[in-house]
Amino acid sequence: MRSPVHRYRDIERQATNLQLEPYVPPSPESPSAMWFIRDACGIVCGVITWFLVLYAEFVVLFVMLLPSKNVTYSLVNGMIFNSLAFLALASHLRAMCTDPGAVPKGNATKEFIESLQLKPGQVVYKCPKCCSIKPDRAHHCSVCKRCIRKMDHHCPWVNNCVGESNQKFFVLFTMYIALISLHALMMVVFHFLYCFEDDWTKCSTFSPPVTVILLILLCFEGLLFLIFTSVMFGTQVHSICTDETGIEQLKKEERRWAKKTKWMNMKAVFGHPFSIAWFSPFATPDHGKADPYQYVV
């Protein structure tokens, strides 16, 4: 890893080269425009995610709940599972279609830098790939082809980067997927016990072999995603509490930002103050009290 002095010199040479570039006024992107990454791998992974959730929905409803003789059991578990599935898919959509914190392209021009009124000795960070002035803690994503503020990682399952503006939705997505996976596994266990005690032909509208295959596939899917999303959820919460993104941990970057309490870090991601909106994928967190990111050092 380069020392801070070498990094400073590299950035200084990049800032000097900016004088050769023609001035192109940055084109501000409309905040109402939907954010969507046209990446084939990410689109396929997103479709697979929805398919797996809908498959679990099908098995839970038509194999386990509707054939059940206990109406109360079916209603309660059906409401819980469908509510969690709806919140999971809504969180997935918000994580996929929300701008993660992209830095405007093409603003690293001589005129724009002069408008910042830099003091002597101040240095601008420039990304040579997207020709943008990088705020502190921003990193370039090769898939999104943009610099992303507080980029944690690029997740193909949501076809988007996880960054400053959509980390809440990604955390909710992993949490709700883990919860519906756990719920589905519990219902599969109860249904197997019920079918063993009763006649297999009466515990499902499908034939016994088809019922077993559907339940085994759901059990495998639920166990796999329970482990994966639980680990991802724990990793994200730890990253938020320590205020250090996955890339910063991987690169072991020097900490140059103020240290805050874990509760303040949580509020910076999920919004101020704490409320039930923290768990809603439809509530956009208020980052108004978060520390602003500086374009110069």
TrEMBL record:
Recorded topology in the membrane: Multi-pass membrane protein
Domain Palmitoyltransferase DHHC span(s) in chain numbering: 126-252
InterPro entries: Palmitoyltrfase_DHHC (IPR001594), PFA4/ZDH16/20/ERF2-like (IPR039859)
UniProt keyword Membrane, yes or no: yes
Pfam families per the UniProt record, alphabetical: DHHC
Membrane spanning stretches: 40-65, 71-90, 169-194, 206-228
EC id: 2.3.1.225
A Gene Ontology molecular function term of the record: protein-cysteine S-palmitoyltransferase activity
Main subcellular location of this protein, as a coarse class: membrane
Superkingdom in the source lineage: Eukaryota
Top-level enzyme category: transferase
Catalytic activity: L-cysteinyl-[protein] + hexadecanoyl-CoA = S-hexadecanoyl-L-cysteinyl-[protein] + CoA
Subcellular location per the Swiss-Prot or TrEMBL entry: Membrane
UniProt keyword Transferase present: yes
Keywords noted in UniProt: Acyltransferase, Membrane, Transferase, Transmembrane, Transmembrane helix
GO terms under cellular component: membrane
Family the entry assigns: Belongs to the DHHC palmitoyltransferase family.
Comment on protein domains: The DHHC domain is required for palmitoyltransferase activity.
Descriptive protein name: Palmitoyltransferase
Organism listed in the record: Denticeps clupeoides (denticle herring)
Lineage: Eukaryota, Metazoa, Chordata, Craniata, Vertebrata
This protein's encoding gene: zdhhc3a
